[in-house]
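so my prof wants the structure for this chain in the C-alpha cells format not the other one, which i didnt know existed until like an hour ago. anyway here's the sequence
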Amino acid sequence: MVERSVDEALLLLRKRLCDLHFIFSVFSDSPDSNYSKLKFIVSSSVTEACNNSLLLLGPRGCGKIAVLDLVLEDLLKEYPDMISVIKLNGLLHCDDNCALKEIARQLCIEHELMFSKVASYDDNSQFMIAMLRECGLAHKTVVFVLDEFDLFAQGKQRLLYSLLDAMQSVSSQAVVIGVSCRLDADQLLEKRVRSRFSHRKLLFLPPQKDDLQRLLKHILLLPTDSNLSRDYVTDFNSRISNIIADKRFIEITDKLTDSDCTVSNFMRFLFSAVSCIDSKSGYMTLENFKSALSTIQRQPKLDCLKDCSILELYIMVCMKRLEVKEQESYNFNSVMKEYKTIHDSFKTSDYYSHNVCLRAFEHLLDRQLVEFADRGHNQCIEYRSVKLLISHSELHQGLKSNRSCPVSYLKTCMI
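here's what i got, hopefully its the right format
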C-alpha cells in the first residue's frame, strides 16, 4: 500500500511540475495579479465589443505565455462562441507576407473555409479585414497573440500597421496582444503604428520570496482528499513543511535565485529534486534539494578548472590580478612579469621556465579558458592580447575545489 502511494505521489508531483496552468494558478486568485488584469482587459473587449491592444513584457521564463494561455483557456470556456485566437511567433513569421498568410490560414481553419496557398499579400490583407468585419457583426472577438513582438517591429512594420489600422473600424472587434522580453518593445514602433496602439503594458517580474514559498507549498504538498494513504500524506507534508522552514533550505533557494530567479528555472530545480527522491522511503530530504542545486548550477568552466595543473592555475591568477589592477590589455609577457612579481613577493618555491609557462598558456587557450582579444594572426603568441574567460568568483571557487591547489594561491587570488 505504501509503495503504491509513493509511486502515485511521484507521478502527481511530476504532473504538477509539467502543468504550467497548475503552476500559475496559485497567482490567479489575487485581483492585483497579471492574470486578473489581463483577464479583465480581454473579457471587457469581448463583452463590450471594443478593440484593444496591449503588451506583456518581462524576462524570459517569467510566465508571460503561460498566464496568457491560462486566461484564454478560461475565457474560451466562459465565451465559447465569442472568441477566436490567432497565434503568431516573430521567430517564424517576422516576414509580413508570411505572417499574413499564416493569419489567413488560421482564420480559414477556425471558420472552416478553403485556404489558398497562392494568395498574394493584398489578397490575404483584404481577406483578414473582411473576416474582422464579419466577426464583428457576429459579435465575435479575434485575439491576435504576437509572441516575440519586437521581431514584428523590424522593417516596415506593414503587418502591425494593417492589424491596428483594421481595428480602427467600428465594425471590427479584435484584441492584439504582444509578448516580448524587451521592455522597450513599444518604442520600436513607427509613429503611424504607435498612434494606433493602445499603449497598455503588463510587466511580468520574477517572483518574490513570499511568492516562491507559496509556489513551493502549492506544488510539493500532497492533497489530503486523494487516493493516497492518509498517514503517508500527513507525514510527507509534515516533512516538506519542516524542510521549507529550515535555514539550510533557504540558503539553497537563495543561491538558486541569485543566478536565475525565473519561474522556469525554479521548476527545473524542483523537478530535479523530485527526481532524486528515494523510491524506498518515498520522502523528500534536504539532500535531494542540494543535489538538484548542484545539477542546475553545474558550470563546465569549473569542471575544466578541476583538471588544470598548478602552473595553469597560477597563470590564471596572474591574469586576474592584472584585471584587478585595471590593466585593460595584456599579453603573455605581461602575465610573466606578474608571475615573477608574485614569486618575488611571496617567495614561492615553484618557479617554472619561460617555455614551460608558454606551453601551459597554450593549454589554457585550447581549453577555452583564455582567448585572444585581437585578430593579429601573424603575431607571435607571446605578444598577442588575451583575456580571461572566467569570473573572479569562478576562479576562486575552482581553486578551492582543486585538491592539488596550494593555499598560497588562494591568498594570492584574494589580494
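also thought this was worth mentioning. The mean pLDDT is 85.
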